[in-house]
């Protein structure tokens, strides 16, 4: 099968810069919304603050989405991720770093640099693009609203080649299109995707440890009745803590899902759209000899957890 790397549209720089500026503004809006929680509810339990943060995030996403549609401007999800990482790094250097131990400082800065490097690698990585020109009959199948379409089952499309509906490209071992990393996730960059996901989790966990070291210096000794003035920098650090915890929770769930997918050799796209792919369907004929039959899900690629893991590690070429 011929590898194809030029499917992506060439970059339109003015548009790209415009999207990055929109993303930068979105990051500032998001972080400002997160700042409102420690600003007005600093004395509330962390759990309640987290709940308020999550609600505010949802509200910001909703309002910003509406404004973007109204103004017809587009943002770049990878630029949003980059700017969010940089924002946390700036807060760390400006506020949190002074209280971090030398080891944690080294660890956190190293992780951020690796994360930025990994994000750049992911943006330019080949997910396993393959050339494929659908025949007219395939195109009819694609435009059909039928749940069971079989255009992916062309004999040329072995090796679990699926079509990314966003990139309009065919990817071997396609899992999903990741807007945050600006690329399809396929058999060639799935491992990098997992490493990056773990990298994000590890960096956020390290940041939370650094934050706990920073917060420890504000603990008032027992019996001391005086209440310390809560500085602006403490509130900013606290808002990034809430944001990091929310990110951590979401990413742990995401990581667990992908670990499940790897263990049982199923891809996200196949799991969601299994009715599109005949190899995942088994037809159960009704016992009374009626014409109607029930369609059930069966994963033909599942060869047991150990074998699946072995194949996953060996299938990068
Ligand atoms: Zn894609």
From TrEMBL:
It is a multi-pass membrane protein. It comes from the Eukaryota. Keywords: Acyltransferase, Membrane, Transferase, Transmembrane, Transmembrane helix. Its main location: membrane. One of its GO terms (molecular function) is protein-cysteine S-palmitoyltransferase activity. It catalyses: L-cysteinyl-[protein] + hexadecanoyl-CoA = S-hexadecanoyl-L-cysteinyl-[protein] + CoA. The keyword Transcription does not apply. GO terms for biological process: protein targeting to membrane. Residues 159-274 form the Palmitoyltransferase DHHC domain. The keyword Transmembrane applies. Pfam families: DHHC. Its EC number is 2.3.1.225. GO terms for cellular component: endoplasmic reticulum; Golgi apparatus. It is an enzyme of class 2 (transferase). It is found in: Endomembrane system. The chain crosses the membrane at residues 21-41, 47-67, 79-100, 106-124, 190-216, 236-257. Belongs to the DHHC palmitoyltransferase family. The DHHC domain is required for palmitoyltransferase activity. This is S-acyltransferase. It comes from Cucurbita maxima.
């Amino acid at each position: 099968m011929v590898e194809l790397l030029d499917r992506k549209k060439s970059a339109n720089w003015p548009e790209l810069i415009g999207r990055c500026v929109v993303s930068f503004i979105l990051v500032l809006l998001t972080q400002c919304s997160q700042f409102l929680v420690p600003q007005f509810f600093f004395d509330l339990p962390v759990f309640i603050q987290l709940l308020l943060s999550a609600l505010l995030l949802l509200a910001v996403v909703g309002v910003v989405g509406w404004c973007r549609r109204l103004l017809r401007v587009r943002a770049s999800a990878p630029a949003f991720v980059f700017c969010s990482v940089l924002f946390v790094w700036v807060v760390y250097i400006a506020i949190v770093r002074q209280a971090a131990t030398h080891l944690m400082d080294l660890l956190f800065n190293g992780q951020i640099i690796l994360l930025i490097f990994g994000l750049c690698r992911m943006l330019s990585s080949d997910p396993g693009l393959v050339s494929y020109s659908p025949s007219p009959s395939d195109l009819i199948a694609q435009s059909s609203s039928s749940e069971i379409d079989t255009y992916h089952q062309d004999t040329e499309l072995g090796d679990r080649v699926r079509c990314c509906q966003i990139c309009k490209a065919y990817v071997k071992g396609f899992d999903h299109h990741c807007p945050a990393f600006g690329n399809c996730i396929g058999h060639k960059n799935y491992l990098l995707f997992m490493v990056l996901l773990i990298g994000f989790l590890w960096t956020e966990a390290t940041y939370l440890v650094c934050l706990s070291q920073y917060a420890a210096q504000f603990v008032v000794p027992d019996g001391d009745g005086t209440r310390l003035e809560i500085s602006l920098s403490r509130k900013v650090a606290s808002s990034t803590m809430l944001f990091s915890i929310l990110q951590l929770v979401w990413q742990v769930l995401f990581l667990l899902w992908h670990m499940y997918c790897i263990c049982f050799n199923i891809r996200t796209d196949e799991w969601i759209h299994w009715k599109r792919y005949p190899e995942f369907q088994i037809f159960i004929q009704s016992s009374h000899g009626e014409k109607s039959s029930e369609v059930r899900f069966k994963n033909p690629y599942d060869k047991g957890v150990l074998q699946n893991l072995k194949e996953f590690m060996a299938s990068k070429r």
